Amino acid sequence: MAEPGNELADISRDAAAVATEVSEARQPAERRKRVTEFVKRAATSGVGVAGRGTRVARRAASGGSGWLAGQVIEMAPRLKVRNQAALRAQFPGQSADDIADALIEGASRASAAAGAAAGVWSVVPVVTTFPAEIAAETLVVVGIEVKLIAELHEAYGSPAEGNFPERMRTYVASWAHRRGVFAMPSGVVFAAGSPLARLLRRRLTARAGRSAFSLGPLLTGAAAGAVLNARETRKLGQQVRQDLRHHAITGPGGSPSDVATS
Questions:
Q1: How far apart are the first and last CA of the chain?
Q2: What is the mean pLDDT of residues 180-207?
């Protein structure tokens, strides 16, 4: 897959905005509309390798994992993340576990909407560039999941260290490792060829492969994409929450703590 040019130069910015909006949208129609508009812009941009069928799409998307990784790293600091105070104001009187449940459920619904929207758009009878559609859906879903990871850390009072861009890069690493920031290997180095960069590309290749299911025949792809996305996002959220709950109970040094779940 050739690297996209100027046509998708702002895709990381737009993906961040869409991921933020659909994560917090309360109505299913809002989520579907916003994602559909974004996928449509990507699909009609003329970027990518033309061709139909999930096999073509998955192969081309896999070849563009390096570009996707760069876009994810650019996108992360552009996501809007609710801090602990904002989450407690939105969910008054609820525990960290209750807030985490709500965040995971909201993110899984948003992720499902992304898969469904990409699948519905792919049935439009025009020649589209499926890899561009995959890139769009993949970036939105990863944005939803990175935002989820960031807000789970806030809910449990255990944000990553550093300024906001530094924290968001750490949460990208957390997404790649499928762990809370306190449970993953130390160091956030995305330099080409680094272990983390290779892991991120592998995760994105797998994520893009799942996005290809959204492009299946008729509306079966939309249904499959929605189910797969929701399941994987929920699983990721639960894995990260498990690490954060353990960290909240034991404390940074491994000793019992009475913080975070109150």
A1: 49
A2: 89
Taking residues 121-147, report their average pLDDT: 71
Domain count across the chain: 1
Whether the predicted pLDDT of 259 surpasses 50: no
Domain containing 228 equals: 6-249
DSSP class of residue 215? G
Q: Global pTM?
A: 0.82
Q: What residues pair up with 129 in beta bridges, in sequence order? A: 51
> Is 255 inside a domain boundary?
no
Cβ 136 vs Cβ 249: under 8 Å:
no
Q: What's the confidence (pLDDT) of residue 174?
A: 97
Q: Is residue 233 part of a domain?
A: yes
What's the helix, strand, coil split of the chain in %, to 5?
Answer: 70, 0, 30
Phi then psi dihedrals of residue 186, to 5 deg: -70, 155
Tokens of 172: 């990208």
User: pLDDT at residue 3 above 60?
Assistant: no
The verdict on residue 97 lying in a domain is yes
**H helix or E strand, kind and range, residue 142:** helix 130-155
Do the Cβ atoms of 78 and 12 come closer than 8 Å?
yes
Note the pLDDT of residue 212: 63
Contact 127, 36 (CB under 8 A): no
The C-alpha atoms of residue 42 and residue 46 are separated, in whole angstroms, by: 8
Select from 61, 113, 108, 143 the least CA-distant residue to 238. 108
Q: Look at phi and psi of residue 260 and say left if phi exceeds 0, alpha if psi is from -120 to 50, else beta.
A: left
Distance (Å, rounded) from C-alpha 116 to C-alpha 109?
10
In a domain, 143, yes or no: yes
